[in-house]
Design goal:
This protein has seven helices and 17 strands. The chain has 296 residues and is α/β, with parallel strands linked by helices. It binds NADP nicotinamide-adenine-dinucleotide phosphate. NADP nicotinamide-adenine-dinucleotide phosphate binds next to helix 5.
Length: 296
């Protein structure tokens, strides 16, 4: 039995592991994909305090090294369900059951993808899912944002301050965003809305050079340096729906104290209900959840 099992080895989970291990607890961390989570796929991170510039993969490696040196045990397995019992919790995985006194869920979330054939190949080479993280790399360049929600419009406004030109490609003729944001979009001269339009093809050799857009049934090509895909995010917490309360989008309901509806289970990082999903907020949650779990 570990003192604490952490589900997810992204920034929130690994930060929680570091804090819990430094508090003298035995920690097992479960991960079923890559170490580091979402940030490991980011080409450069330049908004983490104290680190001017680092690749996402190096950042993830450093976090993992730090946790490993403190004795945190990693198991490559997917948590398929969690049961509460008299002694604590049983976490079910495909390789067997693990037990702990407390659990921290740090399962993250994924940016929704457009689902285009070349999308994965261009990720980090002209296709980005985070304008806050990558926008500065396209200073004075031409970019596009795909999406019509609050995030897409906010990203377009932010990019318009850095980039020469921003296309806003949305599949309908009305946005899903707040009126105030729509008003701001219409008032910015270097944002060009491309409405009733879907991205049908990504073009380029080593990096993205243009996208083909299908607008009202006819195709046109738009040259650009980067396409920022802002079509929402998806959580993956269905396996824990019997244990903790999820909101209508599948995020774990928990406040800034990271406490869930189940005593002894904490939620940290992008997987919980929150407004800002960034590396720094994930790290902050990891610390809060770990200290709360230690106290529990
Ligand atoms: P969202 O509100 O779900 O909007 C997603 C947008 O992407 C929609 O315009 C949708 O089009 C489009 N879309 C979805 N799938 C697509 C596909 N396969 N191809 C093309 N377009 C697609 O997501 P979000 O903007 O990321 O926001 C997430 C949540 O955070 C929302 O509740 C939002 O209000 C909130 N948020 C709030 C603020 C704020 O300042 N208040 C800022 C950011 C986010 P349709 O419109 O046609 O469905």
């Amino acid at each position: 039995m570990s003192d604490i099992i952490i589900v997810g080895a992204g920034c929130a989970g690994l930060t929680a592991a570091i804090y819990a291990a430094r508090a003298g607890k035995t920690v097992t961390i479960l991960e079923n994909e890559g170490i580091g989570g979402q940030i490991s796929t980011s080409p450069r991170v330049e908004n983490y305090p104290g680190i001017k510039s680092i690749s996402g993969i190096e950042f993830s490696d450093r976090l993992f090294d730090q946790a490993s040196d403190l004795g945190v045990e990693l198991q490559l397995a997917r948590a398929e369900g969690i049961e509460k019992n008299d002694n604590g919790f049983t976490v079910k995985t495909e390789y067997g059951d693990l037990t702990a006194r407390a659990v921290i869920l740090a399962t993250g979330c994924r940016h929704r993808h457009l689902g285009l054939p070349e999308e994965d190949r261009f990720a980090g080479k002209g296709v980005s899912y985070c304008a806050v993280c990558d926008g500065a790399f396209y200073k004075s360049k031409t970019v596009a944002v795909a999406g019509g929600g609050n995030a897409a419009l906010q990203n377009a406004l932010m990019l318009a301050e850095i980039c020469e030109k921003v296309y806003l490609i949305h599949r309908r003729d009305t946005y899903r965003a707040e009126d105030q944001l729509v008003g701001q979009i219409n008032a910015v001269s270097n944002i060009e809305p491309v409405l009733n339009a879907t991205v049908s093809r990504l073009n380029g050799s080593d990096k993205l050079e243009s996208v083909t857009v299908n607008q009202n049934g006819s195709e046109k090509e738009i040259a650009m340096d980067c396409l920022f895909v802002s079509i929402g995010q998806q959580a993956d917490n269905a396996a824990f729906a019997d244990l903790v309360t999820l909101d209508e989008n599948g995020y774990i309901v928990a406040g800034e104290d990271c406490k869930t509806s189940c005593e002894g289970v904490f939620a940290a990082g992008d997987c919980r209900t929150k407004v800002i999903r960034q590396l720094t907020t994930a790290a902050a949650d990891g610390a809060v959840a770990a200290l709360a779990a230690c106290l529990f």
